[in-house]
Amino acid sequence: MPHDPHTDKDARVVSQPSLPDVNKPLRLYLDRLAPSSRLTMTYVLQDAADRLGMADVDIHDILWHTLQPGHVTALVATLRQDDYAPNTTSLYVNAIRGVMNEAWRHDLISHDQLLKIRSIKPVSGTRLVKGRNIRRTLIRELMEACAADPRPQGRRDAAIIAILYGSGMRKSESVNLDLSQIDFAERSLRVLGKGNKQLIKYAPEWAFKALTDWLEFR
Predict the structure, then answer these.
(1) I want to staple 54 with a disulfide (CB 3.0 to 4.6 A). Which of 49, 140, 162, 188 is the partner?
(2) In 3D, which of 109, 125, 217, 201 has the Cα closest to residue 164?
(3) What is the widest separation between alpha-carbon atoms in the chain?
(4) In terms of C-beta density within 10 A (0-12 exposed, 13-18 middle, 19 or more buried), how is residue 37 classed?
(5) Under DSSP, is residue 2 helix (H, G, I), strand (E, B) or coil?
(6) Is the whole-model pTM more than 0.90?
(7) What domains can be seen in the chain, in order of their start residue?
(8) Mean pLDDT of the region 193-203
(9) Which residues 6+ apart lie within 8 Å of 212 measured at CB?
(10) Where would I find the Tyr recombinase domain in this sequence (predicted)?
């Protein structure tokens, strides 16, 4: 069969990696976030879309750059009606702003439209923190309850409680924790914290023992 140089050229073109779609500001925004933040903001934007009447639409198919200031105002109103905390409302507004910033950056909206979106303020005010100081005796009681559980979940839960409490790790930092990030000799864990910063967390011997027990069992 004769060699066709045009066929090789077409094959080379097809095999080239595709560039990001600049018409999808949501994807561009999420790609800039750390994995834990990406998961949170995806949930937030999905809920925002549901509240704006797009419950049956994949959030990646929504033309986010067509949002108007009135849409964001309506979103804030629904959050207020549902008595969402001011910090949570700010999270929703900041997520929308982040997407619209990417839309403006790629010439999908005007600077004037961006300023109008950014001028919308979330609900003001504060809420008392729902958390509480955890007594050491409570942790011991939880660990004893896990030890009394004959199911595999008992050892698993003991490992989770021990590492979270023992290292002071945030829940968001533990979501994507992998074995490659754990140094058993140093009893340390390398995690991705807020601001996409790598951090080293240390845990006591008893916490690593609970983790080792679970890993050996599974």
Answers:
(1) 49
(2) 201
(3) 81
(4) middle
(5) coil
(6) no
(7) 16-118 (1.10.150), 136-217 (1.10.443.10)
(8) 81
(9) 184
(10) 129-218
In 3D, which of 119, 124, 123 has the Cα closest to residue 68?
Answer: 119
- The tokens for 105 are 């950056």
**Which one is predicted more confidently, 196 or 131?**
196
Retrieve residue 168's tokens.
Answer: 């002071």
Taking only the tens place, the pLDDT of each residue in 72-105 is 999 999 988 888 888 888 889 999 999 999 999 9
- Rounded to whole angstroms, the Cα distance separating 184 from 189 reads 9
- Provide the token pair at 42: 């995806």
Q: Which residues lie below 8 Å from residue 161, measured CB to CB, with a gap of 6+?
A: 139, 142, 143, 146, 210
Closest CA to 69 of 45, 97, 47: 97
Q: How far apart are CA 54 and CA 133, in angstroms?
A: 40
**H or E segment to which residue 82 belongs:** none
